[in-house]
Amino acid sequence: MTDNHLKIATQNLLMPADLDESILSKVIHSMMGHDIDYADVYLQSSRHESWVMEDSLVKEGQYNIEQGVGVRAVSGEKTGFAYSDEIILPALTSAADAARAIARQGQAGSMRSWDKRTVPALYTEDDPLSVLSADQKIQLLRAVDDEARKQDPAVKQVIASIAGVHEVVLVAANDGTLCADVRPLVRMNVSVIAERDGRREQGSAGGGGRLMYDFFLEEERALGYAREAVRQALVNLDAKDAPAGAMPVVLGPGWPGVLLHEAVGHGLEGDFNRKGSSVFSGRIGEQVASKHCTVIDDGSIAERRGSLSIDDEGTPTQKNILIENGILKNYMQDKQNARLMNLPATGNGRRESYAHIPMPRMTNTYLANGDYDPQEIIKSVDKGLYAVNFGGGQVDITSGKFVFSASEAYMIEKGKITYPVKGATLIGNGPESMNLVSMVGNDMSLDTGVGVCGKEGQSVPVGVGQPTLLVDRLTVGGTSE
Amino acid sequence: MNQVIEKARSGGAAQLNTDELKNIVDGMLEEAKSKGASSAEAGLSIETGLSVTVRLGEVETVEHNRDRSFGLTVYFGKRKGSASTTDFSQQAVTNTVQAACDIARYTEEDEYAGLADKDHLAMSYPDLDLNHLWDLGTDDAINIARQCEDSALTADKRINNSEGGYVTTHQDYRIYANSLGFSGDYFSTRHSTGCTVIASESERMERDYWYSISRCPEQLDAPEHIGKMAAKRVLQRLGAKHTRTQRVPVVFQAEVARGLLGHLVRAVSGGAQYRRSSFLLDKLGETIFPERIRIDERPHIKQAIGSAPFDSEGVVNTEHDIVTDGVLRSYVLDSYAARRLGTQTTGNAGGVHNLFIQHDDKDLASLLKEMGTGILVTEVMGQGVNIVTGDYSRGGTGFWIENGEIQYPIEEFTLAGNLTDMYKNLALVGNDVDTRSSLCTGSWLINEMMIASS
């Protein structure tokens, strides 16, 4: 419950600096000139650790402590922002002075009394870093390294890493928001190089979430990542050149949902739509995808990597239906863009840290289940590509062009999966490609918890997901004619 | 419309008490020693700055930056631990040293671990004239950003929207010190202006950008020029067509060719070599480019954006060749990678500083003439570059070229090949050298690549 979070945040962030709620209230009040619509203060402290095993040795360990405060004043479309890595009153006051300079000075505006809402927590507030001892973390990495190496003699290199973050944030705003969140985040990754007959290929796998490290011990998950990374590398050792040209493409479930993230997700972020710079701008109520497509962004799924109990502006996250049966329903909003577009905030206001300005961002973005058995979908294709793993993607939201790069793919010939092909980039246009989604499977899954999304230089953890689906025509960037 | 808001605090770092900061670093190294570390190294950086963006003539954001970080690596014999913090208080410094030492109790002996060899350290280093503060008030910054954007918006009525113009100015102060007695510090500045605009035609939108970056504010391009370049680029994109799947020669415009030079650096870096994860594995002494090609590093060019007086482990960095006569002559190494590969560091801890590929005496237009029929690529998208295998497959935007002339813009195609072949098929390098980053190159003409489109 946030009651407890607020207590933890007060102890961690305010008390050491002799700050309290009434001082925050005064600082925010001091920013409220007549042109200022909104002002907030964001305090954060985080501890991060990582351990890396390479050459079967734990060679590197890192520990980082970061803390600071970001102060923002918003006047219409204008934002003044300043931050400090010292959480002390003089720094807070000077940041507030700098931020409020965005607007002309005037009479003091209003500051609402605190509204301390209780929001259910979607994850534990425990500290993941202390759940396992250093020895246990190292044992885990060693077990993963052994598991990968014993899969196949072709495995020549294994790099295994484990990382954890424990973060406390407190948001206070003139609209009465006063809330806190305690956020754990863990991540494991295994990458391998396999070598056979002079050919080398890589494979990688991993996972995590807003969880404790023991997640990796349950159901042999960590060992599973090792096996999966090796499997991918071995598949790629046998891969032939990928085809070049437009063809039907079947995308597997889970992480290939990066399609949704790039083809529609970024284009539905509120800031781009307010500015009219997205290919989806002004198209609410229109058909922007085939009727098989229902696209959802949901930051409220328990313990997922992309989830948040409250976003970085204190808005509780929720399940937002972006596209329903192909019809565009909603954009993702932070407070500023919601206010400017006269729409409700959707719990998508996120920032990389106290040193960054919040903006509308995705959380966990996925395509809802359809009716088809995945096998039926593959069977329906005479000649095409079946892509099950991807690196990442990129989109130009203005033209709608997007790419995503397959790292494990196979040819489909006469309804059967025949042989693996090398990685290749797929390119399409968001609305066009989404209208070409002709079959959607019933095997929806979210990715294992590895996604990082970059926008305007800010990185945040996200999730993606989808069932198996068929796009009738996508351009595949291989080398063979 | 905007009143003077306030004087930017970009000059703040000039008032830093550098002696005090050096004392913090020295104190940290001392403390590591007292905790039993056999050696240690520490780095500190403070960056201050101002960023403003203006959109459609109105101020959008004014951002005051001040970032500090402080990191330490300790060695207990051949065991290593690292920690960092943004908190410079005595207590935080002590905790950070303790955290690094705690980690080193658990890491394992790595026979190659350790500081750079003392003989390689830059006990004296040059002043590269990298520090040129921009005495710029917020209001001045806003005006410059506005001029950039305005010059693009007024260029053509099809340019009817914008992602804005910007100005940023930053000063960075860095210290690196280690327990072998090396202590180096320097200030540097970096200023940039640019804009991104949107043009529409037949209900289709395209966007493009242009920017200028420099250590010295007076060397930045005029805002009007930046706006005109952005306008020219975005207008050229309108009315783009698809092309067909085919093998054709390709010219990578300089900004995009930079990426191809970047892939080379990754492939010949020490980490990729000792991890056997490079398509140029063990290629030292072998021909990887046509015979004319020379690639060299010049880390000490005065005022250059990629320059640094010493590398990030305090090692002397000097001019040296990576490729001559098309033959790979040197990897890109730090001390650790060098020890693993049984050789000497090349002064590249932290990366390369001003890499140049020798160009031919031909401009971009001549390259297109030379190509005749093919594709000019002006933008690439996606991460489809596999350094282990050299497989290259990325999305592209550009122009269809016939008889050496631009015919029409093309979009939504992929470019694919293998970097090994692409390097060998590098026919010409243009003299339109882009020096806005550490990787300096003109445009590249590559004899053949696979293009896919629908």
Give a written overview of the molecule:
The complex is a heterodimer of chains A (481) and B (454). Chain A has 481 residues and is an alpha+beta fold. In chain A, 21% of the residues lie in helices and 39% in strands. Chain A is built from 10 helices and 22 strands. Chain A has helices at residues 2-14, 21-31, 89-100, 134-151, 221-237, 258-265, 270-274, 335-341, 374-379, 430-435; strands at 38-54, 57-75, 78-84, 155-173, 178-196, 199-209, 244-251, 295-298, 319-324, 327-328, 349-350, 359-360, 364-367, 383-395, 401-413, 416-421, 424-429, 437-440, 445-446, 451-455, 458-466, 469-477. In chain A, strands 8, 9, 10, 13, 19, 20 and 21 form a 7-stranded mixed beta sheet that branches. In chain A, strands 3-2-1-4-5-6 form a 6-stranded antiparallel beta sheet. Chain A has a 5-stranded mixed barrel with strand order 7-14-15-17-22. In chain A, β20 (451-455) and β21 (458-466) form a beta hairpin. In chain A, α4 packs parallel to α5 (221-237). Chain B has 454 residues and is an alpha+beta fold. In chain B, 23% of the residues lie in helices and 36% in strands. Chain B contains 9 helices and 17 strands. Chain B has helices at 18-34, 90-106, 138-153, 223-237, 254-267, 270-274, 335-340, 364-371, 419-424, and strands at residues 39-55, 58-76, 79-85, 159-178, 183-201, 204-214, 246-252, 295-297, 320-324, 327-328, 355-357, 374-381, 391-402, 405-418, 426-429, 439-440, 444-452. Chain B has a 6-stranded antiparallel beta sheet. Chain B is globular and about 70 Å long. At the A-B interface, β2, β3, α4, β4 and β6 of A face β2, β3, α2, β6 and β13 of B. β3 (78-84) of chain A pairs parallel with β2 (58-76) of chain B, so a sheet runs across the interface.
Sum up the structure in keywords:
heterodimer; A: seven-stranded mixed β-sheet; six-stranded antiparallel β-sheet; 10 helices; B: 454 residues; alpha+beta; five-stranded mixed barrel
